[in-house]
């Protein structure tokens, strides 16, 4: 009888320790994720998320993936700022929006987030799936439209099944993972 009680107590203690360790590890992982997936420029993200109907987690994931929140970032291809917009794309969007802005404004966080979000919204209205939007954001909508017509890369509904450019395929995965991490950390739906 004494052995059975001792064994039961040991099992309960092991369970309590295991559950506690699980919570501790979860909190440590969340803390690391919060460091690598911060919320910065929230005023602009909130404003343009609402204005252009783009989920906040998509905007944050784009900024994190593109520039790691460095407003002065410039890619080897010439993309500029937080959301790494190409100056030509920015000027085209400005014209579409009826504005005349200098491409140097891409270094301004608010302008970059505004037009990057506007571009994401435009791409979403064109493609209707976020994964396809991520691919188009990375390699251009023209190339993605060509893939959608090719049965080697898309199904009969135009949903990409294979991305032939490894960099773009990796980008889509990074974006999808970052969006999920932002959702988990900051944008859980309360039910």
Description:
The protein has helices at residues 2-36, 42-52, 56-67, 87-96, 109-127, 130-139, 141-148, 166-186. The protein has 191 residues and is an all-alpha fold. It folds into two domains: 1-36; 40-186, Lysozyme (Orthogonal Bundle), CATH 1.10.530.10. The radius of gyration is 22 Å and the shape is elongated. 29% of the residues are buried.
Counting DSSP H or I runs of 4 or more residues, the number of helices is 8
In the CATH hierarchy, the third-tier topology of the largest domain is known as: Lysozyme
**Helix/strand structural class:** mainly alpha
Total separate domains = 2
Give the overall pLDDT as a whole number. Answer: 89
Q: Termini separation (Å)? A: 46 Å
H-E order: HHHHHHHH
Give the C-alpha Rg.
Answer: 22 Å
Low-confidence stretches: none
CATH architecture identity of the largest domain: Orthogonal Bundle
Q: Summarize the biggest pleated sheet.
A: none
């Amino acid at each position: 009888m004494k052995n059975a009680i001792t064994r039961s107590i040991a099992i309960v203690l092991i369970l309590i320790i295991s559950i506690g360790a699980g919570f501790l590890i979860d909190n440590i992982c969340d803390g690391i994720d919060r460091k690598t997936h911060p919320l910065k420029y929230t005023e602009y993200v909130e404003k343009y998320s609402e204005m252009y109907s783009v989920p906040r987690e998509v905007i944050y994931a784009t900024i994190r993936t593109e520039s790691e929140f460095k407003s002065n970032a410039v890619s080897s291809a010439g993309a500029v700022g937080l959301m790494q917009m190409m100056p030509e794309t920015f000027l085209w969007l400005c014209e579409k929006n009826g504005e005349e802005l200098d491409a140097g404004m891409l270094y301004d966080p608010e302008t970059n987030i505004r037009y990057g979000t506007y571009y994401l919204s435009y791409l979403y209205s064109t493609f209707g799936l976020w994964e396809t939007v991520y691919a188009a954001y990375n390699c251009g909508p023209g190339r993605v439209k060509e893939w959608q017509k090719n049965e080697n890369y898309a199904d009969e509904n135009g949903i990409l099944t294979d991305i032939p450019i490894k960099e773009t395929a990796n980008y889509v995965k990074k974006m999808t993972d970052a969006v999920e991490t932002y959702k988990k950390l900051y944008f859980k739906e309360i039910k």
